[in-house]
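Re: [help] complex structure
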Amino acid sequence: MSSVNITFPDGTIKEYKHGVTPMDIALSISEGLARNCVVAEVNHRLTDMTRPITKDTAVRLITWKDPEAHEIVLHSTAHTMAQAVQRLFPDVKVTIGPAIENRFYYDFDTPTPFTEGDLVKIEAEMKIIIKEDLRVERKEISRNDAIDFFDKLGESYKVEIISEIPEDEMLTLYSQGEFTDLCRGPHIVSTGKIPAFKLLSVAGAYWRGDEKNKMLSRIYGTAFSSKKELKAYLELLEEAKKRDHRKLGKELDLFEISETVGPGLSLWYPKGATLRKLLEDYWYAEHRKRGYDIIQTPHIGKAELWETSGHLDFYKESMYPVMPVEGQDYYLKPMNCPFHIMVYKRHQTSYRDLPIRYAELGTVYRYELSGVLHGLMRVRGFTQDDAHIFCTLEQLNDEVEKLLLFSFDYLKAFGFEEYEVYLSTQPEEKFVGEPALWEKAQKSLSKSLKKLNIDYKVEEGGGAFYGPKIDIKIKDAIGRMWQCTTIQFDFNLPDHFDMVYTGSDGEHHRPFVIHRAIMGSLERFIGVLIEHTAGKFPLWYAPVQLKIIPVSEKYNETATTIAQAAIDKNLRVEVDKRNERVGYKIREAETQKIPYMIVVGQKEEDGGVVKLRHQGGEELASMSVKEMIAFLKEREEMRD
Ligand SMILES: [Zn+2]
Ligand SMILES: [Zn+2]
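Output below.
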């Protein structure tokens, strides 16, 4: 065993001495390459550049250009931040610090929560640690030794985490200078390798996300493989901040998530409710066109229903506590499915009745930890644009194809033209239903995707335990991806509810059941729309389409008459009757992002003509009030 054969990604095999490290391999190719390496993929797993290789294996060197590098640099920067924090604040205890999408965070137990000002100091100390270029060293350790190690340091959170790990497991510690963290790794070779980072914000976070636990101080940061990428990301964050739906929701007077009402519960103001109603109207119209029946079901249901469906088994921790009423137990609904199935079961179904498509804007309630709630994007009560499709095997392909076309058309109407599509297949272990059914469902999903020429990624084993699914993520105006549409098969509920239809052979068969939501939920979709449009809603779903501004109180009556004519044609109009200067009122209509406005003064009153002004200042030629209304109706019709 004096040598090992290393297979490179291009298939070439080279011999190296036993115990060679990825770093040695990189150096044997070129010094430049070695400098650029972050970690290595050895035998399909990412490992440190310094770990010896003791058997024949495949090696891929990961450089800054590879997507895998990002998570490594994020995580290494998190360690460096924790080190800086401990240097500056010795009595702070560390907890956990994972990398998340484009960012990392670390939660600290500190007597006084960190402030934005502390971030500047911590950043400065991190720069010193980077300059020190400390080697990052990996060490294997038994679980009990790890407990001793962190116990001596007084790091009680680490001790708590490690105590939950099985006793015989070997753990790894990563050290850089005086700082050591429990970590799976891998990490960069030394702290000097961190190319670009920035600390972003501080926040409070409960230990383990549980509000019964202690409140910790969380620091968010980001890091990138180059200064250029970091700059682009910080610019994106700036833009995202301007578009934050919580901020715009307040400024545009749309909605509120009020602490008095309860976290995760949205209160819709008139304009927000109008926006919502417009989306609902569009939703109903599109569903009727496509052969859906609209149904309506209650917000609560008896325990028996949730027992039959299995929700009390596998979904209980997301459900609100039981409500006993007249000796019966009730639960708030976390999903609409059991109700839709009850509607299906109201009579004998024949194959001639299928497919049946039931749709409902169904409001459901799910218990989410308060720490993960986020504006409208993650709430506790939300309205799913839910539908269930019941069909035969023969109808499967057709239905899936229709669903996909429907989803893409629907999203396109809101200006989403770029997507990422994921097909998630049968989990390896925990799943229900015959593998043959899974196979059929997966085939029809992939067949439809291929037929419609849709690029998609397969997430092997990523399906729910009850069936395979397609998820669609949409790209917003500033390039962020949002999960919206989901199309899921269900092999669980048809059995639990003993759903049948009579086939052409006179026998009973199980229908296929597909759950689907296109928007996902109204709340979330509106959140995404606000951020996508930056609050500049197009005419067809703007809560206020036209603002009428009288130049003085003298013209309030004329303005009101014009408004009424437009309202009679079902346009959404507001008159600004306040005794304010015209310029001020125009500016306010602009900041309210109202698509059109007109100013009404003597000329307008005498001539019966108006000049429409488009949001942003562009002015249209004079037209009569009737022409203006016709113009707006036409633009609305075009979904402008
Ligand atoms: Zn770590
Ligand atoms: Zn469902």
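The longest helix spans residues 68-88.
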